[in-house]
Amino acid sequence: MTATSAPRTIRGAASPRPGTSRPQRGEEPRSAPHLTVVGEPHRRRIPVFAMLVSLVVLGSLFSLAVFHTWMAEAQFELDDVEGSLAVQRGRLADLEFQVESYNAPGTVAGLARGELGMIDPGEPVDILISPDLMAEIGTAEESYRSPVLDPVPVAGSAVPSSAGADGAESTSPDAPGSAGAGGNNR
Q1: How far apart are alpha carbons 117 and 153 in whole angstroms?
Q2: Total count of domains within the chain
Q3: Which of 34, 37, 43, 47 is the most buried (most CB within 10 A)?
Q4: pTM for this structure?
């Protein structure tokens, strides 16, 4: 017999390792559980489906944020346009009031007489003319009645002036202003 020192176990006391107890005398040894070698623990992988769902959710949230920003900008622009529209409507109301006031019969007649100098068709009118204007009219009338005309040379005529050799004025039948050409002397 060989003597080996084995740890003693006391009945009813807990064994140092749970699930490992030595068989008692007279008992049959228990069969050992079937053990297998376990590899390194593998990392938990995120399934592809969950990754796609999270990308879709994040993309949707981003697109909602962009859409909200766009809508806020559009609302600011709409507020500006509505403000200018209200100003233009007020201006339109003022202009319509002016048109209505100008279309009143008394207003039109008053404006025609006062600002435009118009008169009613049968009403007599005195026209005052300034002395300067009268002098201008008189000068223009004199130049019209006695025009200064330069003689026009006639083909075959050697004398370009209207005075002959003896100093007397000669008129040819073709000269403008002469009675022989059928023209009227005024």
Answers
A1: 51
A2: 1
A3: 47
A4: 0.33
